[in-house]
Specification:
The structure holds two protein chains of two kinds. Chain A is of the alpha/beta class. Chain A contains 16 helices and five strands. Chain A has a five-stranded mixed β-sheet with strand order 2-1-3-4-5, sandwiched between helices. Chain A starts with a helix and ends with a helix. Chain B folds into two domains: 219 residues, 3-Layer(aba) Sandwich (Rossmann fold); 68 residues, 2-Layer Sandwich (Alpha-Beta Plaits), CATH 3.30.70. Chain B is built from eleven helices and 14 strands. The chains are: A alpha/beta, B alpha/beta. The interface between A and B is medium-sized, with 21 and 28 residues. Bound molecules: adenosine-5'-diphosphate (ADP) and magnesium ion.
Chain lengths: 392, 309
């Protein structure tokens, strides 16, 4: 009950400060719009397509393999430039980032097709260039469809002579096609990033949401410092209230404020920029909650070390801006990629963008685990430092 | 009601409270009187469980504060020395918040909040925010926040510092009234007039030590033998002050504007000598009075210092 009273009182104070309240709701939306428009060119794919290299491994010397060779080098020759490689090295070369995409043909392709067995040509992608991925995939798909149709027809004609009823043949061909169609298909394997590229507004809606949720921790920190210096904290301590209740109240009010902010960002971006946040509100909640906890823990930690609200705001601003910048939240910065992988922003962003791309909870468990682990560690630190300060 | 036994509190190398033992009974208005830095706030913080003693035992209403801090706090209402309010919340919300923390709910809560505001003379200011209040109004709201739950014990730490006489009288009057309504009161001040005016018992505290404890009368009796001679003059000079101080029997001599104030156990005996010195220094005397000792002189006698150095 005390926790609720304390949290409610915090919210009342936030609501009483109209400027803060307005900033809390308007600033994120403004930043998303500004960055979204300003950075648009960075996110647009190249308009005219140049011929690009594609790693190619085709150990199948049978008829199907040969005809894929000729299809890719003649008909598709103006789109792709085949770079032949050993089957075993293809994936690692894509991983190295030298080539955006590769095609790997199984050695028994012809044999499998002729026997009507399942087989697969793999398109291996780094996920860096969605357009090239799609082109290669479309080429292989259309080749597969072609082969499947021919196989189906061939099987039909094997049993029925040309003189026989044409309709029956066509009929059977159709049936065969339905059966065969699945026998030779393409597998799309992404070796790095499974996400399709986000558009500019999706990108900034996600990074700014994370950034602004992190900054809510400043409210917790300044709240604690102000209450300490104004003597209100002494007064609360003279009431039958436990320290833990005080901290819980702070978390609760921060959680409420942050969730209102998140909701406003999500609804606004959905409405104004058609940002799709995925189909799982639960997943969103699971991503955002640890971010909010990380932010309130940082607020408490700094408030336990410092005695000035101004100093706290400056330090936390620097921390959050740096983290967001390094993680590429204000604009993608490829050279910082190795460092970015260790930022809270990146984990949260990766999770959010996975959900935006239609992923499910299973796709983000790794990032979620990292977020929750950091939240837990910071909270342990926060409680420890706070206790030390209070008993000093 | 409140019981301190050999309580000692250190801050680093300073001993803020040195081996204090005292009892405050139910229904009392107990005063801690002492100059700044004497240890009054420290004593109060210890009783409220805000700081832990290095030694000794503190009991409130029979409860040991170490073992039942929350139960003790339920019985207390603290008016802190510094004004401690939420600056951007209304007066009503301020009082209500602390009343809720003390456990009040529903219609009783509303009733008591309104009662407390009325008590503080802020009935019509419930919707105002402290930012726009005068110093006196803030002080009164500071009190209202501590009394809405009608605590058994109300602890006030220098509640009249820096305010106009009107607000001050209002506060002193409300202390008496709260006491009549059944609360035991602990009141700290460095104004001896205040302590004399409202406290039933007074503990004089200096450098963390309790130098005297008792009712006004008991304390006066401590320095009973001492009288104060006040001599109003026209053209006082300092050579005579030195000469008077050098006389036997003079405990202390000070100037206060054109007045000479002399503390002595034998006023009649040395008055002759004093007048002789004044005459010799060509100081004209306008008036001579003998004053009964007040708490100021008690403090002076016990510590050799004035209350407000
Ligand atoms: N938190 C603290 N840290 C260090 N010293 C303190 C602290 N609080 C009080 N003191 C010291 O303890 C002594 C008593 O202070 P205090 O109880 O505030 O006196 P009073 O209330 O009578 O003016 C002073 O010397 C003061 O400097
Ligand atoms: Mg004090």
């Amino acid at each position: 009950m005390n926790v609720l009273n304390l949290a409610l009182n915090d919210l009342k104070q936030t609501a009483a400060n109209k400027v803060t309240l307005a900033l809390l709701l308007v600033l994120p939306v403004l930043m998303i719009s500004l960055l979204g428009y300003a950075m648009k060119p960075l996110f647009q794919p190249e308009k005219d397509l140049k011929k690009f290299p594609v790693l190619y491994s085709n150990p199948d010397s049978g008829p199907v393999g040969r005809s894929l060779d000729s299809f890719l080098s003649s008909q598709a020759g103006n789109l792709v430039e085949l770079v032949p490689v050993e089957a075993g090295t293809l994936e690692s070369q894509v991983l190295d980032g030298k080539y955006p995409v590769g095609i790997s043909v199984p050695p028994d392709l012809s044999q499998a097709v002729s026997q009507g067995k399942q087989t697969r040509v793999e398109v291996i992608s780094s996920g860096r260039d969605q357009v090239k991925d799609k082109i290669v995939r479309a080429l292989v798909d259309s080749f597969a469809a072609n082969i499947n149709t021919q196989t189906a027809l061939a099987q039909g004609y094997r049993n029925y002579l040309p003189q026989a009823q044409a309709s029956a043949a066509a009929n059977l061909a159709g049936q065969n096609l339905a059966r065969v169609q699945s026998s030779f298909g393409t597998d799309f394997v992404s070796v790095l990033d499974s996400k399709p590229a986000l558009d500019t507004f999706q990108f900034f809606a996600a990074t700014m949401l994370v950034f602004f949720l992190l900054t809510t921790g400043m409210g917790v920190g300044t709240g604690i410092i102000t209450e300490r210096t104004s003597g209100v904290m002494t007064r609360i301590n003279a009431c039958p209230v436990k320290q833990s209740e005080y901290l819980l109240g702070k978390i609760l009010s921060n959680l409420a404020i942050a969730l209102v902010q998140a909701t406003s960002v999500i609804l606004f971006s959905q409405y104004a920029f058609q940002v799709n946040w995925g189909s799982s509100p639960l997943a969103l909640l699971l991503i955002l909650t640890p971010v909010i906890f990380i932010s309130s823990a940082l607020g408490i930690i700094i408030a336990s070390i410092l005695s000035s609200a101004k100093a706290l705001t400056s330090i936390l601003s620097v921390i959050f801006w740096c983290m967001t910048f390094v993680s590429g939240g204000f604009a993608p910065v490829p050279i910082l990629e190795p460092v970015a992988r260790f930022t809270v922003n990146k984990w949260a962003f990766n999770s959010l963008s996975a959900m935006m791309a239609g992923g499910s909870l299973a796709d983000i468990t790794g990032n979620l685990a990292a977020l929750f682990a950091v939240a837990l560690i910071l909270w342990l630190g926060a409680v420890m430092l706070y206790q030390r300060r209070v008993s000093a | 009601m409140i019981r301190l036994r050999q309580v000692l509190k250190r801050y680093g190398s300073t001993i803020a409270l040195d081996n204090i033992s005292l009892d405050v009974s139910a229904g009392e208005i107990f005063g801690f009187l002492g100059p700044n830095g004497a240890g009054k706030s420290t004593a109060i913080n210890l009783i409220c469980g805000l700081v832990k003693p290095d030694q000794g035992e503190i009991r409130v209403d029979g409860l040991d504060i170490r073992h039942n801090p929350l139960e003790v706090k339920r019985r207390l209402g603290l008016v802190p020395q510094e004004i401690a309010l939420f600056d951007n919340l209304t007066a009503w919300d301020n009082v209500e918040f602390f009343a809720k923390l003390a456990g009040l709910r529903g219609s009783l809560l509303r009733e008591r909040v309104s009662e407390a505001l009325e008590f503080a003379g802020l009935a019509d200011k419930g919707k105002g925010v402290p930012r726009g209040f005068s110093g006196g109004m803030k002080r009164r709201l500071n009190i209202a926040c501590a009394i809405a739950h009608r605590p058994k014990i109300i602890i006030m730490d220098e509640p009249t510092v820096g305010i106009d006489p009107q607000s001050r009288n209002h506060i002193l009057e409300s202390v008496r009234q709260l006491n009549k309504l059944g609360s035991t009161i602990i009141y700290t001040t460095h104004y001896m007039e205040e302590a004399e005016e409202i406290c039933s018992r007074i503990g004089i505290i200096d450098h963390g030590r309790l130098v005297a404890l008792g009712s006004k009368e008991e304390l006066r009796r401590l320095v009973n033998e001492t009288e104060k001679i006040v001599i109003e003059t026209v053209d006082l000079n300092f050579t005579c002050l030195e000469q008077i101080k050098a006389l036997g029997w003079v405990k202390d001599a000070q100037t206060n504007g054109q007045s000479l104030e002399i503390l002595t156990p034998h006023a009649q005996t040395i008055l002759q000598d004093i007048l002789f010195i004044l005459q010799r220094n060509q100081v004209k005397v306008r008036n001579i009075t003998l004053v009964e000792p007040d708490l100021e002189s008690v403090f002076l006698t016990l510590t050799g210092r004035k209350l407000r150095d």
